[in-house]
Amino acid sequence: MKVLANDGLSQSGIDSLRKAGFEVIVKKVAQEQLKDYLRDNGISVLLVRSATKVRKEIIDACIHLKVIGRGGVGMDNIDVEYARSKGLSVINTPSASSSSVAELVFAHLFGGVRKLHDSNRNMPLEGDSRFKDLKKSYAGGVELRGKTLGIIGFGRIGREVAKIALGVGMKVIASDHEVGEAEITLEFYNHQTIKIPIKTEPVEMLIRDSDFITLHVPSQDKPVIGKAEFDKMKDGVGIINAARGGVLDEEALLEAIETGKVSFAALDTYENEPNPAIKLLMNESISLSPHIGAATQEAQERIGVELAEQIISILKKEKA
Ligand SMILES: O=C(O)[C@H](O)COP(=O)(O)O
């Protein structure tokens, strides 16, 4: 059986699949040629990340297709229900990248409170007429310790973010479908564990009470954070979106930065990917990364291995 990994696959994932007898093709077929390629080459397993779209048209045309595998979490690029209704298996790797995304959130958070993303661009040197002013503009950052982090969406990634925040000495509040108390388990390098209760609140309260807000919800039809929500936040709040473009209204964000309501923002995902709005790119209060939350070596390694295991198990069962 043939596997096409259209957005890449870790070497260990490739090796496991090959060992199990699959022919693995790792190459990028352009979106407009994908349907023909899959059909003409009799591909049984299509593996993608977020870049490749797998819509009805492809599912209908490719009769050899048995499994669609998403290396990662969000399946908004795949017509999942439709594929399943046609008898295909659609799989993802929901937990493999949680700590990588959480660490990126904190990379942005630590950098944002000290304006590192901007000082990297404008590093002031003595002798430069702007030296004093620039140095002053990068002074006056704040500490994270003792501040409140509001986590909207308390699934696997949200919980990983909470663990880091607790380690830094932040107060954590979360918002999810259920309101009440959630529990997370902190696991140390020596395998010692501690259970910590986390208060969950409705989004309106979280927005009001947080010094920093980070979003960890799936793609939505309308933004979770828009003008009305920004208006209710504390002055000088910091906000991070490493979830999906569109869960944060970018126009409203730019306006909130302009009025000083938001002191800094960090974005890893955008309404318009992969080419974010120029106004975001030019804004010195925004720390940017190109949708790399899950793009660490470790996460991609786990993703590849998990995908291979699932594919082998599904197709073995089918054969039996
Ligand atoms: O949903 C995900 O897993 C993340 O957004 C990562 O997407 P990527 O695999 O395309 O980097």
From TrEMBL:
InterPro entries: D-iso_2-hydroxyacid_DH_PdxB, D-isomer_2_OHA_DH_cat_dom, D-isomer_DH_NAD-bd, NAD(P)-bd_dom_sf. This is 3-phosphoglycerate dehydrogenase. It comes from the Bacteria. SUPFAM superfamilies: Formate/glycerate dehydrogenase catalytic domain-like (SSF52283), NAD(P)-binding Rossmann-fold domains (SSF51735). Belongs to the D-isomer specific 2-hydroxyacid dehydrogenase family. Residues 5-318 form the D-isomer specific 2-hydroxyacid dehydrogenase catalytic domain. GO terms for molecular function: NAD binding; oxidoreductase activity, acting on the CH-OH group of donors, NAD or NADP as acceptor. Residues 107-293 form the D-isomer specific 2-hydroxyacid dehydrogenase NAD-binding domain. The keyword Oxidoreductase applies. Keywords: NAD, Oxidoreductase. The keyword DNA damage does not apply.
